Amino acid sequence: RPALAWFRQDLRLADNPALRAAAEGGRPVLPVFVLDDAAAGPWAAGGAARWWLKSSLAALGRDLAARGAPLLLARGRAEIVIPALAEATGAAEVLAGRLYEPWARERDRRVAEALGAAGRDLRLLTSTLLREPETVRSGTGRPYAVYSPFAKSVIGMGEPEAPLPAPDRLRPLATPPPGEALDSLPLYPVPGEPDWARDFGTLWQPGEDGATARLGRFLAGPVTGYANGRNDPGTEGTSGLSPHLRWGEISPRQVWHAVRGALPKDPELAKPFLGEILWREFSYHLLFHRPEMPDRALRDRFAAFPFQPDAALLQAWQRGRTGYPIVDAGMRQLWRFGWMHNRVRMIAASFLVKHLLQPWQAGSAWFWDTLVDADLASNSASWQWIAGSGTDAAPYFRVFNPVLQGEKFDPEGRYVRRFVPELARLPDRWIHRPWEAPAAVLAGAGVALGRGYPRPAIDHAAGRDRALAALRGLPRAA
Ligand code: FAD
């Protein structure tokens, strides 16, 4: 009897345990993707992620068709669609990579129940993480709340298993049920409408081949200098694998082993990068154990934080018009390419929450809509960490100074000049503090502060003092 291979966040053929198990013994397999926005509710994929998903599904469809079993696209409630497909095809079971988002776990429970009522199984296999959240526990048997001991514990469990090869050939169903056309799904770009994501394609190639190529590019260059290169937003010092990992076009195991293999003589060099893969892992484990993480402060005392929601300030930040060049460059990189360098994500997020006193949830919602790599675990964990309300040690009183951060990590202003062209001709000395530049320098560089490029939305020292005063007003930790 055939099996359904239900693709969700593992849009790849290699190292895909669910696809492999579905095709076991040469049985016929129906690969399926279901767009189920209703189940995800507010966490349905945002705009930029929907751009990614559309091309990723196109790539997956091509790759599956080349192996003999075309992808069936559907939309609607998975607990209805999946059991109906199983019924129509006489499938014995449904296989999928396990998911950790609270809404997805709840949905899988409903799907399993509906399938079970007809005597069928939903089998969930480890696919998007290195380790299952239940298996990483502290000495007292509790999940870790802090990154370092978590990472140590995962490393102590030994190297992850070697990745599985992609299946050579898949046996299709003789008469697969009809599916939807990719263009009929509500994804982006919408045929015939203006394409706000027009520059995305110059940077990204969604799909498994794109992920493999991106990994190859990283291994051929930046990987050896990653420890320092990752902090320079003006160069390509990081892997750029985040959206590929987000959609599972490559698995963390594949990345892990490839990076280890590329640095055989110097395992120490791999550590900082593998540490980031473990931050991703940690974020997922946290989300699993603390499902309220996307919405509510993990530290109770922060629930009372006196944010001052202000639509105009939020919009200035969203549009890259705060008057702080490094923040604005980051926000414009995000809009243009659906991605922002990690160092700048930290500076821009901190600025929103601490200097502008806007709720971190407003920032995370904007990232959710604009990042191609938006993932509920990493996005929520990172915002809580920046806001100081997360479980990890990130002292709230550390308020990034956006000028000093810019001068430290973008000393020649290469990054700022690229994304804030109004400032391109300012000398290095003022590139991160244009309001301090003499009038003649501004005029010479063609900068009209307050008209072309904005003045700072808030003075740094005043913003920092206000944030610290707000913190002092919070109830003491229990
Ligand atoms: P690399 O430096 O090459 O790292 C390799 C991989 O490790 C990344 O692809 C990513 O999967 C993982 N990783 C790296 N840093 C982190 C981190 N701090 N937390 C979790 N995983 C990490 N990352 C997302 O994937 N999705 C998000 O929605 C997201 N939102 C963020 C929001 C804020 C406010 C901040 C400060 C960070 C956020 N990050 C998020 C983490 C990080 O910025 C990105 O993963 C990273 O910039 C991706 O670029 P890269 O692939 O070149 O990273």
TrEMBL record:
Residues of the Photolyase/cryptochrome alpha/beta domain: 1-130
Keyword terms, alphabetized: Chromophore, FAD, Flavoprotein
Cofactor needs: (6R)-5,10-methylene-5,6,7,8-tetrahydrofolate; FAD
Signal peptide feature range: none
Family annotation (InterPro entries): Crypto/Photolyase_FAD-like_sf, Crypto/Photolyase_N_sf, Cryptochr/Photolyase_FAD-bd, Cryptochrome/DNA_photolyase_1, DNA_photolyase_1_CS_C, DNA_photolyase_N, Rossmann-like_a/b/a_fold
Gene3D superfamilies: 1.25.40.80, DNA Cyclobutane Dipyrimidine Photolyase, subunit A, domain 3, HUPs
Domain of life (superkingdom): Bacteria
Pfam families assigned to the protein according to its UniProt record, in alphabetical order: DNA_photolyase, FAD_binding_7
PROSITE patterns documented for this protein: DNA_PHOTOLYASES_1_1, DNA_PHOTOLYASES_1_2, PHR_CRY_ALPHA_BETA
Family statement drawn from the similarity comment of this UniProt entry: Belongs to the DNA photolyase family.
PANTHER family according to UniProt: CRYPTOCHROME, CRYPTOCHROME CIRCADIAN CLOCK 5 ISOFORM X1
Protein name per Swiss-Prot or TrEMBL: Deoxyribodipyrimidine photolyase
Higher taxonomy: Bacteria, Pseudomonadati, Pseudomonadota, Alphaproteobacteria, Acetobacterales
